[in-house]
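ok, trying the design again with the full structure, not the truncated one.
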């Protein structure tokens, strides 16, 4: 069982940056690939980025490629999402997720989400 807690959301102006964090409560954090998703009101949940167990491999949705960066610190059992050049359409609840496999967008464990609001 993995429990995930996101933090770092908030209100930011368009063009600004935020870094989201997701802390995991498991002794075997490095056994899990991690991902970030978001869900805006009235829209389906959207995959953003994934990272492999030790961080050597990452992949991104086209909508955020070049603006968002996923990273992880296994010693701190934390995954990050650095978000730059934010746009109003990035407004959503952001979720981190964990799964023993890498490459699938079907994750087994989810956090509760953190709100990101980008003002124009």
């Amino acid at each position: 069982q993995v429990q995930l807690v996101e933090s770092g959301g908030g209100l930011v102006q368009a063009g600004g940056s935020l870094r989201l964090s997701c802390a995991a409560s498991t002794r075997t954090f490095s056994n899990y690939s991690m991902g970030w998703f978001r869900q805006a009101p009235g829209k389906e949940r959207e995959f953003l980025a994934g990272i492999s167990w030790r961080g050597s491999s990452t992949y991104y949705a086209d909508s955020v490629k070049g603006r968002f960066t996923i990273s992880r610190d296994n010693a701190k059992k934390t995954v990050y999402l650095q978000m730059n050049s934010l746009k109003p359409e990035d407004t959503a609840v952001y979720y981190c997720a964990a799964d023993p496999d890498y490459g699938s967008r079907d994750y087994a464990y989810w956090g509760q989400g953190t709100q990101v609001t980008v003002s124009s």
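Keeping the full-length input from now on. The radius of gyration is 13 Å.
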